[in-house]
Structures are given as structure tokens and as C-alpha cells.
Amino acid sequence: MKKIVGVMFVFFLSGCNVLSVFNITDPTKETNVEYLLGLGEYYIQNMEYDKAYQMYSRAVELEPDNAKALEGQATAALYKEIPFTNVVLAIVKNNSTLIPQNGLYRAAGLISSNMLTIMQGKAKGLDSNDVQINTVFFLIGNLWAVFLELDSNGNGNVENDTRDLFILNQDFTIENNTTNRSFVDLAQAGITFQRRRPLIINLLDYSDIALSNILGQLQSEQTREFFASLTSGFSAIRSSVEDVLQMSGSVTNLLGNNDPDSITNLIGEGGYAPGDYTTFTNDLASIGITNWLELTNSFPDLGGGFDAISNYFGL
User: Fold this and answer.
1) Considering only CA atoms, which of 303, 289, 281 is closest in space to residue 194?
2) Between 20 and 30 A from 41 (CA), which of 69, 83, 121, 299?
3) Nearest to residue 247, comparing CAs of 166, 156, 160, 144?
4) Quick one: signal sequence residues (predicted)?
5) Of 75-79, 88-92, 176-180, 265-269, where does the model show the most confidence?
6) Contact (CB, 8 A) for 305 and 295
């Protein structure tokens, strides 16, 4: 993913003693970006990814528009969780079990954001059409879109979390887990999807741009054939993302239905039967809905919802 820069060269540029690489204990006090990049490369080569991440993160803090710092930070964040080759292997073999999903989920947001900053020409030092940058965004950005949809309850767990509305199968298809779910489950998922939908759509749009940038630069037939196998493996992933977007739209439409009977029926589904209104509102608060207005702001069509809830509890 990265071209390894000679660490010794960086030492000479920064005027630092070679042995000082072993004396860095607090990267937050270092102000020489080139030196930090060199240290990051050193730690990447030695597979000390936590230390590499600290160095690159400090470099990004000092120069947020430094493309090499952004790429290095993303590289370290990824390698802390999983070798990049494992991501490629999982997609080529169409086997989601080959990647630690929660680990990649933790790293994917930063990786995608950093790559996108470079692709949009907002960082200096690397071409926005760089094949490696665009390839990483294409792979990780699409997977992040999947994880954002899977994590419907927002707890950071996407590995067979039965509390989520959707489950990722081994072949990257999505299993629908929305049947017989309570109002609270659907309310939480609906608000989560409403908030994340613009980001997910943006990821999909830029993954198309990344793919175009990549295909426009591949020269050898062998490379093009390999990348074709990658894009073929992504067909299930892309289809899953689009399916969940459609299904999540159905969830939000269901919540947005202002028919009192439909809303009150939702309350009792999945065996959910709050004994009183206080219990119900406490349950909503536990998923981040602290007042009814938060729900109606996300679903404007839920105009009759308050009356339905009041009638349900005899208020």
C-alpha cells in the first residue's frame, strides 16, 4: 500500500542522531513532520503498528493536508487490525470469515476518510488518481458501507450480532433479521439509517469514481484481469449494500406510517410489551431517543404517533 521511504534519509534531513529512533517516547512533542514520517516507516517495516500509528497521527495533527501522513496513518490503522492482503483474499474468495469484521469496522472510517481526502485533491504530496489510494478506498470504503448498515443498533459489533436488523453471511450477502422486531428495535435502526444514509451513498458514489480512476491507469492485461476478479468479488457486497438501503427505506417508511393501528401493533411485535409509558420512554432513552421530538424529527410522517402511543397506554 505504501512505498517504503529510507529511514536513514529522513534522519539526515531532520538532523537527528540515528540512535534517537530508540529514544522517542512521546511523539506528541515532536514537531518535525519528515522525521515523524520516517519513524512511521521504520515502525511499519518492523511491524510495530501501534507505534507507527502514533507517529503518523502526530504528523497528521501537524499537517492535516500532508497526503503521505494521511496514507501512513491509514496504513498503520489497517495493519493494526488486519493485513491488507487478507482483505483482498476475502473478496477474491468471497469469504467474509477471512477478515476480522469488528477490527476492520473500527479502522475503516479513518482509512476511507483519509483516502477520500487525497482523492478529492485536498492533500499535498500524492496524486488524487494514485492507483493504490483509489484501490484502498474502493475496497475499504465499500466494506465500511456494509458495516455501517449492519450495525443498526450502533454498538460497534457487526459480527453475528443478533440484535442487529441485518446479518452478514459468509458469502457477503445480507440476511434479513427484521421479522418480529419491536418498535424500539425499529426506531433505533430507523434513526441510525437516517443519519448514515448520506454517508453510505457518498461512499458508493466515490467508489465508482475510484474504480474509474483505477481502470483508466491499469496497463498490463494480467493486472486488469486480477482487478476484474476483485470487482467480480465485490458484486455480492455492492448488491448487499443496495439491498439494505432498500430494506432500511422500508423500515423508515414503516415508522413513518401515521396509521395509529400500525404504530401500536409495532409496539407489541417481537414479544416487546412495556407495562407502562415510563418503561417505554426509558427503553427509548436507552437507545438514544430521549424525547418524542427526536423521533418525529427523523420521521416527519409520524405525525399521529404521539396520539397512538397515548392511546396504547391509556394516557
Assistant:
1) 289
2) 121
3) 166
4) 1-19
5) 75-79
6) yes
Q: Which of 146, 149, 186 is nearest to 289 (CA)?
A: 186
Strands (E), the chain: 166-168, 174-176
Class (C level, CATH) for 1-80: mainly alpha
* C-alpha to C-alpha distance for 272 and 284, rounded to whole angstroms: 12
Please list, in sequence order, all residues whose beta carbon lies within 8 angstroms of the beta carbon of residue 303, skipping any fewer than 6 positions away.
Answer: 258, 296
Q: Which helix (H) or strand (E) holds 213?
A: helix 183-215
DSSP labels, 282-305? HHHHHTT--SHHHHHHH-TTGGGH
Q: In 127-182, where does DSSP find H-type helix?
A: 131-150
Model confidence at 3: pLDDT above 50: no
CA triplet 147, 150, 154: central angle to 5 degrees? 90
The cell 426506531 sits on which residue? 187
Q: Produce one character per residue of 19-49: b if its CB has 16 or more CB atoms within 10 Å, e if not.
A: eebeebeebeebebbbbbbbbbbbbbeeeeb
3-state secondary structure of 63: coil
Task: Over range 11-30, report the average pLDDT.
Answer: 52
What confidence score (pLDDT) does residue 140 get? 93
Mean pLDDT of 155-160: 90
Judge whether 55 and 40 are in contact, CB under 8 Å.
Answer: yes
Prediction pTM value: 0.79
Q: What share of the chain in percent tops pLDDT 70? A: 84
pLDDT (average), residues 240-258: 71
* CATH 1.25.40.10 segments of the chain: 1-80
Question: Is the pLDDT confidence value at 48 over 60?
Answer: yes
Q: Which helix H or strand E contains 269, and what residues bound it?
A: none
Residue 46 has pLDDT above 70, yes or no: yes
